[in-house]
Design goal:
By secondary structure, the protein is α+β, with helices and mostly antiparallel strands. The protein folds into three domains: about 260 residues, 3-Layer(aba) Sandwich (Aminopeptidase), CATH 3.40.630.10; about 130 residues, no CATH class; about 120 residues, Immunoglobulins (Immunoglobulin-like), CATH 2.60.40. About 25% of the residues lie in helices and about 25% in strands. The chain is built from 14 helices and 24 strands. It has an eight-stranded mixed beta sheet with strand order 1-2-4-3-11-14-12-13, with helices on both faces. β7 and β8 form a beta hairpin. α2 crosses α13, α3 crosses α13 and α6 packs antiparallel against α13. The two termini are about 45 Å apart. The model has no long low-confidence stretch (mean pLDDT about 95). Bound molecules: zinc ion (ZN). Zinc ion binds next to loops.
Length: about 575
Amino acid sequence: MPAPLTPAPFDHWPRYQELTELLQGWAAERPQLLTVVSIGRSHEGRDIWMCEVTDQATGAAGDKPAVWVDANIHATEVTGGAAALHLVHTLLAGHESDERIGRALDGRSFYVVPRLNPDGVELALADVPRYVRSGVRPWPLPTELPGLHSSDVDGDGRILSMRIQDETGSWKPHPEHPRLLVPRGADEEAGGPYYRLLPEGHLTDYDGDIIKVPPSLAGLDFNRNFPYDWRPHSDQEGAGAYPTSEPEIRAAVQAVVDRPNITCAVSYHTFGGVLLRPYGARPDDDFPPADLRAYDRMADEAVRLTGYPRASVYHHFQYEPKTWMRGAFDDWIYEHLGVFGWTTEFWSPMRAAGVDVGMRFIDWWKDHPIEDDLKMLAWSDNEMGGRGFIDWYPFQHPQLGPVELGGWDEVNVLSNAPFDRLEAEVAPHSDWAVYLALVSPRLAVRSFTAEPVAGGTHRLRLVVQNTGWLPTNVSKKAIEQKAVRPVEVDLELGDGAQLVSGLAHTELDQLTGRGGAISMLGWDAGHEPSSERVRVEWVVEAPAGTVVRATAQHPRAGVCSAELTLA
Ligand SMILES: [Zn+2]
């Protein structure tokens, strides 16, 4: 029996110190399965930890196809971090007891970065929190502009809304549910009381009349800082000064390109309860058709396991018409490297409350009936013990005087799964990560034989095959971008042996996978050539008893070898 494994926490969000100790503890508890490495340091100098998970008894992580998972590139999206820890724990715990996980760790590897942005998360988890989009480096403003800055002014650990009675305010109480504010009529000039709604925060340089809400000093969005389709801040807010200008993103990009065995990648975010894929700024017609089919077939398994719909950022996740999302991780890893990449947006409070947003993940926030607000309010009251919507309570504000604090707790309840359902929410996504590992290409020796020819010469014949579902190149895009090497075979001969014909080092082509099989009622009736197999032949001259060894390798399909003793 292996030593007990420390459980992953699902009743609180671990801060950096606890996260570090947890990962190091797991590495000590399962040294054969887990290595924790630092892929770089954050702006404030925190190590960015990556868990390398594989069964080292069957080969090093780099010699096997691998799935990449990162989380918490965005500071407050801590459900993603919990999901990444769930994945690592599931792999370690299931190695011996779960057949699929055992196979995945024997023949594949996982690279899991549970907290790509440790600085921003640490701020979000502080006793008196501050919420930033990504990291804490001031950009593009060098110093803070005057105005209202979001902060936890009453020090209760939450950042809510402030409401102030104001004759020009846009809001008024709902007639039957007065704590819910609804828009004042467009033609409504008198009546009231009316309210102004503001973020909870403190004011600098307040003149008593004008309340500006300036952009955050921490204006970076790390998930706009990747090298593909990067655009400057004027086109893409938060993009940074140039692609990979941020140390966290430079570390991630370097870690990925240093690991050419990665075949699929998932970036864990919140929220929306949806699985997103590229492109951010191009329609689906721009994909090589085979890649689009592969993308969607793999995502179909996520839909089955998690209940989350699958969607394209371009077609279903635009913030404004004709405003595209650029410089994101999944776009980069697919377009530059030909690796299938997704973005998982965990948790949908609307779905939990019985509000159907359909595929309007962003649009719903801009336009929905007040009945949806009431359903959400009832859900907060009845299922969340009132923790979702906080009823207004008086507060003496240092600059504004008497105000009321309350409203939706956006970070703790809307954009992250509550603790009592956190584990159930993330668990199926770990199953999908295992599935993504198991569909990778995998090289195997089908046969390696020798046949005597004449006078101490032998004909050697090696047949190598891809036993995986994906082709060895993984995607058509990888070939288009020249991002992937072919299958390579090396023949090693013992002392006294020499090659008569054939090459000691042979470069072959890519091998297909099983992904083309969809239905017998398809083109070619589902018939398939054996294009997942390839044969290499040599003639060698060697004394009896010579040991010859053939090794086939492919960066995305692993390594395999076979040995023969010549008669
Ligand atoms: Zn995000």
